[in-house]
Amino acid sequence: MPVNRRRRASLVDTASRALTERTTLGRRLVAMRAELRSRRVPLHWTHVFGVVTMASLAVLFVTGVILMFAYDPSSELARYEGPYVPLHGAEASGAFISVMRLSFEVPGGLLLRQLHHWAGLLAPVSIMLQLLVSFFTGAFRRPRRANWVLLFLLFVVTLAGGWSGYALPDDMLSGSGLRIVEGIVLGIPVIGTWLASLLFGGAFPGAIIENLYGIHVLIVPAALLLIVVVRAWRAYRIQPPQFAGSGRREDNIVGVPLATAATRAGGVFAVVTAALFVVASAVTVGPIWVYGPSDPGNAGAGSQPDWYTGFLDGALRLVPPGWEFEWMGRTVTLAVLVPLAVVGVFLLVVAAYPFLEEWITGDRGSTTSSTGPATWLRARASASRASSSTRRSGAQRVPTSSRWRSTWVWRR
């Protein structure tokens, strides 16, 4: 009697086949998988900066979630009774005491703190290098202008996350920095007092720790995650940029399969993470026990921000003292407004540079029409040369017009 040796499909196989063959979502997933398998990725050493950024952000997210369970975002004063003898009995906020407990009493707590801090210092470096690579290689032009804006927003949100986390230990260093921030905000005409009250929740220091904690653990991570997801989606929709070479075109990427590129990126990711662990284990950063708890009546003489906000501190120091005037019964402090205006305009120009360059040069990439001052000037110069040639040859001219510039069609 013949035996039927054909293996019966399992319930999982049947459900999977039904999902991929009979539903729109399943068919799209199958098509996406086939496309990803066939996709090629160009290789270049500058791609390492993106992997460093992702590794830094991943370390920030993981260590930040763990640190949340040990940190107390409280401005309420209490007595420090921990094992660090020089500060024993000192009055400090609940935030400072919790960070001291994390550093000296929780196993591995100091390593997590320093790992989180070093990752926060590394992320802005890698993002800035990504911006520089995109700028000098022209990868910010169509159709990747939105990628440039998203990368710039990632940089700004990372700075916001670093600044808000900088103040959370509530030590003397961060307290002095918050005093400077309060002075800058109060120096803004008309709305400065209102903004300071909104940020600090009253007289300094107010509830600044509680307010910054919400920004640091809710707003910043959500914004970072959203920007990363949108950039990944755009990277899937648009072919990656590549340097000029044989066979390399916008519609033909020369490189390795996506799986190979992902494997290499995973190796670099692991190396960056391991390097952060080594640095965090060997190099102390943020020793709050040296600075002591924050005191609203005192300030540290050597207070300075982290390196990525040093340009803001430097802009304030460059302005001469006493640069102010009276206007409508109010004191307008140019020592605050001018640096804020210069930095704000610079950041705005960086964000809008792809659009400004396109408008000035008239280079619209794959589009057929070109507009802008440079295109208008070229058209005027061409018309002037043609006019001179026609006057010499006695030709007849027929004027035509376009949307932004005037041209002349010449015929004999």
From TrEMBL:
The chain crosses the membrane at residues 48-71, 115-136, 148-168, 180-200, 212-233, 268-290, 332-356. It catalyses: a quinol + 2 Fe(III)-[cytochrome c](out) = a quinone + 2 Fe(II)-[cytochrome c](out) + 2 H(+)(out). Keywords: Membrane, Transmembrane, Transmembrane helix. It comes from the Bacteria. Its EC number is 7.1.1.8. Residues 15-244 form the Cytochrome b/b6 N-terminal region profile domain. Its cofactor is heme. InterPro entries: Cyt_b/b6_C_sf, Cyt_b/b6_N, Cytb/b6-like_sf, Di-haem_cyt_TM. PANTHER family: CYTOCHROME B. This is Cytochrome bc1 complex cytochrome b subunit.
